[in-house]
Amino acid sequence: MTAKKSVNNGGNKDNNGSGNQYGNKNTNSDAKHADAAANTMNPPAKRGLVLTKKHEKYLKIAVLILLALYFITAFIAYPMMPDIMPTHWGLNGEVDSYADKTVGVFAVPAAMVCIAGFVWYMKKYDRRRKHKSRLELERYDAGTAGILLLIVLYMYIIYVYTLLYALGMYGDMTYVILILMIPMFAGMFWFLNKMDLIKLK
User: Fold this and answer.
1) Nearest CA to 89 among 162, 179, 169?
2) Which of 135, 168, 177, 199, by CA, is between 20 and 30 Å from 192?
3) 62: in domain
4) Residues with Cβ < 8 Å from 139, sequence gap 6 or more?
5) Angle at 141 between CA 135 and CA 145, to 5 degrees
6) Same domain for 20 and 87?
């Protein structure tokens, strides 16, 4: 009887040991899956600023303010403009295109409104959006609004210099255009990096 009990106790120990072993493996596996799911739902925070829906809102408001400023500037400048005004400069810094003042004053503001409207409208038809997470979409939309703001701001400065040139208040435009391109492209690369479209170290 004593021998049988010892054998049974040994068997129970083996069963308990193997059961605990498999139970521990299952527990560890479940923990790993839970951690993976948590990382998927809540990705680790990135260094620096992370673009959100709030940033997109403020950037869009800034774009709308600039677009309104285009037309305010146009209506103020229109009575002072000559009937024919310069609209384009060559690489040598000399004017190579002229236009009626109505076209010269209002063409750029109208073009900027069309560009902004096109960017915001076409966003709805981007097929890649359905494959992106909510956080990815927020970064992408805010980054797009930021790049649009840089373009609209760059063109507004060029637009104002064009009006000043037409009034004889400013000279060579070539250096202005080239110098302004440096911060504009730097800002674009910054937004593209935040959108995860390029990687900057």
Assistant:
1) 162
2) 177
3) yes
4) 50, 51, 52, 194, 195, 196
5) 145
6) no
H or E element, residue 141: helix 134-166
Per the structure, the complete domain to which residue 153 belongs is given by 53-194
Structure tokens at 36: 């993976």
**Six token digits for residue 183:** 């911060």
Same domain, 93 and 170: yes
Let me know whether 125 and 90 are in one domain: yes
How many structural domains comprise the chain? Answer: 2
What does the pLDDT look like over 19-76, one tens digit per residue?
Answer: 444 444 444 555 444 444 444 444 444 456 788 888 889 999 999 999 999 999 999 9
Same domain, 18 and 101: no
110's CB contacts (< 8 A; 6+ apart) are none
84-96 pLDDT per residue, tens = 998 888 777 778 8
Is-above-0.90 flag for pTM?
A: no
- Residues 158 and 78 both lie in one domain: yes
Q: Which of 36-40, 93-97, 135-139, 145-149 has maximum average pLDDT? A: 145-149
